[in-house]
User: Which sequence fits this backbone?
């Protein structure tokens, strides 16, 4: 069954912050796993420290791919965790096709 997953990727690391170039390279990993997704810039906090955060939203039936992406981020950037929110699948409103 499809679910909508929101992954919260904090950009602070033990030695600084993740650069835009590094994020862009990591986003290629997301693109290889999912044909469609949304990225939003937001701000969060982890262990009392504010940090810039990337919020990635994906609707998929492949939970294992979501976990793989989270694990890849944790391992690539030496992170403690990735926030993960799972909800009912997103619905789409589409245009009505004309029948001839």
Assistant:
């Amino acid at each position: 069954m499809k679910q909508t997953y929101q992954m919260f990727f904090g950009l602070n690391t033990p030695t600084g912050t993740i650069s835009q170039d590094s994020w862009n390279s990591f986003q290629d990993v997301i693109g290889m796993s999912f044909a469609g997704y949304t990225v939003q810039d937001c701000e969060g906090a982890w262990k009392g420290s504010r940090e810039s955060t990337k919020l990635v939203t994906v609707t998929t039936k492949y939970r294992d791919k979501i976990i793989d992406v989270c694990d890849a981020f944790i391992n690539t950037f030496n992170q403690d965790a990735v926030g993960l929110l799972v909800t009912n699948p997103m619905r789409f409103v589409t245009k009505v096709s004309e029948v001839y």
Remarks:
- The first strand starts at residue 3 and ends at 10.
- The mean pLDDT is 93.
